[in-house]
Design goal:
This protein has a three-stranded antiparallel sheet, with helices on one face. Helix 4 packs across helix 5 and helix 6 crosses helix 7. The longest helix has about 30 residues. The protein contains seven helices and three strands, in the order ββααααβααα. With about 200 residues, it is mainly α. About 60% of the residues lie in helices and about 10% in strands.
């Protein structure tokens, strides 16, 4: 995976096809967690279709910690939180699904390079952040200490410092840590690129 660089009209990145396909598949999985399917989501919906989806009744609150992280309560008061969820959750969910689907389609159709136009940067920021939230929740990252622990462990794993053979559950956690570290680094490179005012070179 290559870090994002500022270019004329936006930012650019890329990587090996399998890396981009992996991130695309994870974006698709997050869309599924939110109850949608990238195969049927139209990110260029007409305004009436978008409005209809946003006004649709919210689904029953889920107790999946990942969904709770993506769609947190907006108030500590249970009654107020329920009212706010009824008013805004469909809109928030729809926006997240649209952002994730846009990035999924860009990555799944990429041949190794990715160009993100200036007006699409917020979409990518949001989608990458939501993906990090999902991975972080699965890894029980709730504070800075745990985040640093995961980052350090991911570095050790990448260098081959782990017990061999691994238990299946350890293998899954190790893979999650590596992917989380990769997505975090990629998102940080996007933030750094956005901070540059002019293209390099």
């Amino acid at each position: 995976m290559y870090g994002f660089k500022r270019v004329r009209g936006g930012v650019s990145s890329g990587g090996d096809i399998f890396e981009l396909e992996l991130v695309a598949s994870l974006m698709r999985d997050v869309v599924a967690i939110l109850g949608e399917d990238v195969a049927v989501v139209d990110v260029t919906d007409d305004p009436l279709a978008v409005l209809e989806r946003e006004l649709a009744p919210s689904a029953e609150p889920s107790f999946d910690p990942v969904v709770e992280r993506l769609l947190p309560d907006m108030s500590e008061d249970p009654d107020e939180a329920r009212e706010l969820r009824e008013l805004s959750e469909s809109s928030v969910r729809s926006t997240k699904v649209s952002n994730l689907t846009s990035v999924y389609r860009a990555l799944s159709s990429s041949t190794g390079r990715v160009f993100v136009a200036e007006d699409e940067i917020p979409v990518w920021m949001s989608a990458l952040n939501d993906l990090r939230l999902v991975l972080g929740t699965r890894l029980d990252i709730n504070d800075e200490a745990r985040a640093e622990e995961v980052a350090a462990r991911a570095g050790e794993i990448a260098d081959g410092h782990h017990a061999n053979p691994l238990r299946d559950e350890d293998e899954v956690e190790h893979q999650l840590m590596l992917v989380y570290a990769m997505i975090t680094w990629w998102q940080d490179s996007l933030i750094d690129a956005v901070r540059l005012r002019r293209p390099r070179g």
